[in-house]
Amino acid sequence: MTEVYAADHVVPVGVAPLRGGAVAVRDGEIVAVGSRAEVLTAHPDAHVEELGAAILLPALVNVHTHLEYASYGGFGDGLTFGPWIADHVARRPRLEPGDVEAIAALGALQNLRSGVGTIADASFAGASVRAASEAGLRGIVDIEAFGGKGQDPAPTVERTWERIQAHRAEASALIRVGISPHAPYTVTPALYRALDALARAEGLSIITHVAESKGELEAIASGTGPVAVALRDLAEVEASGLHPVDLMAELGLLRPDVLLVHMVQITPEHARMVAAGGAGIAHCPRSNALLGCGAAPLADMLAAGVHVGIGTDSPASAVDFDLWDEIRTAIFTARSREALPDALTAHQALELATIGGARALGYGDAIGTLEVGKRADLTAIDLVGTPFAEVEDPIVSAVFSGSPERTLLTVVDGVVRYRRATDEGRLAAALAAARPARTRMIGS
Questions:
Q1: I need a labelling partner for 248 at 20 to 30 A (CA). Which of 32, 128, 268, 412 fits?
Q2: By percentage, how much of the chain surpasses pLDDT 90?
Q3: The predicted structure's pLDDT at residue 444
Q4: 151, 191 in Cβ contact below 8 A?
Q5: Helices (H), 278-368
């Protein structure tokens, strides 16, 4: 059966918005986009959902999540990067069986509630695979791997491959499982090479955190500094004498199917190297700001032609999974860094959070815009009661008023995965299920 979603404003992204528009969906695919009258005339037997004073647009793409940290908000606030990670690691053993699964399920629902249809998740425990699959999200879940100086890569690669195969059995058709070598300060060059060989052999994606902080640069270049010291018990850093991006280039990890997360401490030449290689970048401005890592040079990335998407990171470093707040922060930090009011416009920011993210993850042909033939990933923002209810520019209205509270629904692959009118009880239950885990991590 054909389903038609009609709204006062439809924002397809990449082409002009439509006033009084509609989108027709059949078998998970977009079959029509146009004026309400045109779409209903072409599909007279469709079921019609009238969204009213709302903006209908592509479901957002959150290019960096850690669903398993949905309950970690505020932990270690004010600590510098190295001690913050150490605090994060120290709390994890306090969790009990079932805690990570409850937290990840909450994180998946919170993403849907933020209008997100696709995620790229770095998963420590693997619980994100089932959580994302059961929630109906689309995307990538890459299993994290760690290994420090002096450790043989072979056992880590074997264990990681075993975990990937096990979690693949839990994955829906919309979720791909890959590898996440955590970062060059927790993964040696030899382990990167071994994991990359596995990824190439098995056609797996790679997510890795790169050039996030100045402490990371020091740790990788010389094996010294607060990051190296803080993580010594987890994985001793193997100094390479290189900048992290130069190290990734040497390892052959600037190619498509690789997502580089953060990329704060980079030069314009590094951005050009990434663009030439074809890797994507996950831009996480709230996390970078909250941890005092700085503001990534987004203008340099875009000028170089890099595929950039916007990611929330996790509530451990960005408070929540509100991708709308992340989009606004991307605008604020870009304009502040460049001292220009048009350094990043609302139109450009929405593109980063939709088609930009889709391209960074290799999904550009399937999602990210509302086009006939693409998969039906949609979300709708309620404007009632906002200062933007009288619409001048629907993209500006969406970007500056969008929030989880105003998300009317999120559709992934043609199926409504979240609906505000009926899912508030579901959210309350997920929060309650995850609450004991947070209590245990606090230690009280």
A1: 128
A2: 93
A3: 59
A4: yes
A5: 285-290, 298-304, 315-318, 323-338, 346-351, 357-360
Q: In the numeric block, which tokens belong to residue 266?
A: 């980079």
Average pLDDT in the 77-89 region? 88
Separation between Cα atoms, residue 384 and residue 166, nearest integer Å: 46
Name 159's Cβ contacts closer than 8 Å, sequence gap at least 6: none
CA 65 to CA 109: how far, in whole Å? Answer: 13
pLDDT recorded at residue 235: 79
Distance CA 227, CA 398 (A): 39
Lookup: tokens for 443 = 């230690």
60-360, CATH topology level = TIM Barrel (3.20.20)
Cα 354 from Cα 85, distance rounded (Å): 30
For the chain, the distance separating the N- and C-terminal CA atoms, rounded to the nearest angstrom, is 52
Tens of pLDDT, residues 289-303: 999 999 999 999 999
Query: For the residues 314-320, what does the mean pLDDT come to?
Result: 94
pLDDT in tens, 369-424: 999 999 999 999 999 999 998 999 999 999 999 999 999 999 999 999 999 999 99
Lowest mean pLDDT among 46-55, 78-87, 279-288: 78-87
Fold of 3-58+370-427: Urease, subunit C; domain 1 (2.30.40)
Q: Which amino acid is located at 135 in the chain?
A: A
Count Cα atoms within 13 angstroms, Cβ side, for 42. Answer: 17
- pLDDT at position 209 is 98
Residues of the chain with CATH 3.20.20.140: 60-360
Q: Where in the chain is the domain with CATH 2.30.40.10?
A: 3-58+370-427
What's CA 127's distance to the chain center, in Å?
Answer: 16
- Scored b (16 or more CB within 10 A) or e, 253-274 reads bbeebbbbbbbbbbeeebbbbb
Answer for the pair 335, 346: CB distance below 8 angstroms, yes or no.
no
Strand ranges, E, within 69-202: 116-123, 138-145, 175-181
